Amino acid sequence: MVGLSFAAVPFYSWFCRTTGYGGTTQVAKAAPAQVSDRTMTVRFDSNVAAGLPWRFEPERRTIDVKLGQVVTVYYAVTNQAARVTAGQAGYNVSPPTAGIYFEKINCFCFTQQTMKPGEKRDMAVVFYVDPKLADDAEQNGVKLITLSYTFYPAQVPDQTAAEGEPPAKSGRI
After folding, report:
1. CA 122 and chain centroid, separation
2. Per the confidence metrics, is the pTM higher than 0.85?
3. Which of 56, 57, 62, 93 is the most exposed place for a label (fewest CB within 10 A)?
4. pLDDT digits over 84-106, tens only?
5. What is the largest CA-CA distance in the chain?
6. Residues in a beta bridge with 78
7. Which domains does the chain have, with CATH numbers?
8. How far is residue 50 from each of residues 87, 150, 154, measured CA to CA in Å?
9. What number of other Cβ atoms are within 10 A of residue 133's Cβ?
10. Tens of pLDDT along 104-131?
11. What is the C-alpha to C-alpha distance for residues 56 and 119, in angstroms, rounded to an integer?
12. What is the pLDDT of residues 137-161, one digit of tens each?
């Protein structure tokens, strides 16, 4: 039973990525071959979980895109702490049924972000809405997709290991 519970987590993650269940977006390797005339409004939402002293906001709140059009949008992030901090972004789209059609080519959310005290950074997400959305009758009424990110605190990587320096000696002999 314990083994099944541990296996359930990666299986559920795979299932959500594959089907878009719960608004899970897809990861694309390249742009689509076609661009549709249908236009969709994409709204950008940004949140920071308690315990992470970051300011995080999109450069713009909405953008109109054609299905299949590759778009790059930036989010401004500032570490407001006087220490190094790290965060990992969780994400989803709404309505949840649109997740299967929301394709990210590149995103800051794919990796953990570490920021120095007071550091400001523009972080990009490159995406498109798959033109196949137009063929899905359930999506006919969808005119707005909200891409929502929440940054959660993460453990700061060991700086000496990250910089390739040998670890400090503990003083023991």
Report:
1. 14
2. no
3. 62
4. 999 999 999 999 999 999 999 99
5. 71
6. 55, 120
7. 22-156 (2.60.370.10)
8. 11, 10, 12
9. 22
10. 999 999 999 999 999 999 999 999 999 9
11. 12
12. 999 999 999 999 999 999 998 864 4
Q: What gap in Å lies between CA 2 and CA 10, rounded to an integer?
A: 14
Per the structure block, which two tokens stand in for 48?
A: 């920071």
Residue-level length of the chain: 173
The amino acid occupying position 13 is S
Question: Hey, what are 118's tokens?
Answer: 């007071």
- For 164, counting Cβ atoms within 10 Å of its Cβ (0-12 exposed, 13-18 middle, 19+ buried), the class is exposed
- Find where tokens 């083994």 sit: 3
Q: How many CA atoms lie within 13 A of 107 on its CB side?
A: 22
Lowest average pLDDT, out of 3-7, 37-41, 77-81, 157-161, goes to 3-7
- What is the SS3 assignment for 103? strand
In angstroms, the CA 39 to CA 134 distance is 10
Among 45, 69, 44, CA closest to 133: 69
Mean per-residue pLDDT for 35-56? 96
Instruction: Give which of 10, 35, 38 is closest to 141, Cα–Cα.
Output: 38
Residue 132: CB atoms within 10 A of its CB come to 16
